[in-house]
């Protein structure tokens, strides 16, 4: 088992690493240009793609506990 001195030493080392990393990030923010990429061909075109499988949709909606019309409501969990 670790005693309190060892734990405190590890905390200080972790804080030093995090502080150094945060300082490095600050220096990078100024150097980053706009990261938007424009492509010659858009991959998300309306009307292009496979036809929806209505049987799949029916099964999913039958299994869904929370739904409203054509919308499913997902659960939202919290970390404890």
What's the number of extended β-strand segments?
2
Helical run tally: 2
- Coarse shape: flat
Write down the Rg.
25 Å
Q: What is the H/E string? A: HHEE
Biggest beta sheet attributes: 2 strands, antiparallel
Strand arrangement within the widest β-sheet reads 1-2
Q: Overall pLDDT, averaged?
A: 80
Beta-strand content bin: 5-15%
Low-confidence runs of at least 5 consecutive residues? none
- What class would the helix/strand composition place it in? mainly alpha
Please bin the fraction of helical residues: 40-55%
Query: Could you give the distance between the termini?
Result: 26 Å
Structural features, described:
This protein is mainly alpha-helical. It contains two helices and two strands; from the N terminus they run ααββ. It has helices spanning 4-29, 54-63; strands at 67-68, 71-72. Strands 1-2 form a two-stranded antiparallel ribbon. The longest helix is centred in the N-terminal third of the chain and has 26 residues, at 4-29. The chain is flat, with a radius of gyration of 25 Å. The two termini are 26 Å apart. The model has no long low-confidence stretch (mean pLDDT 80).
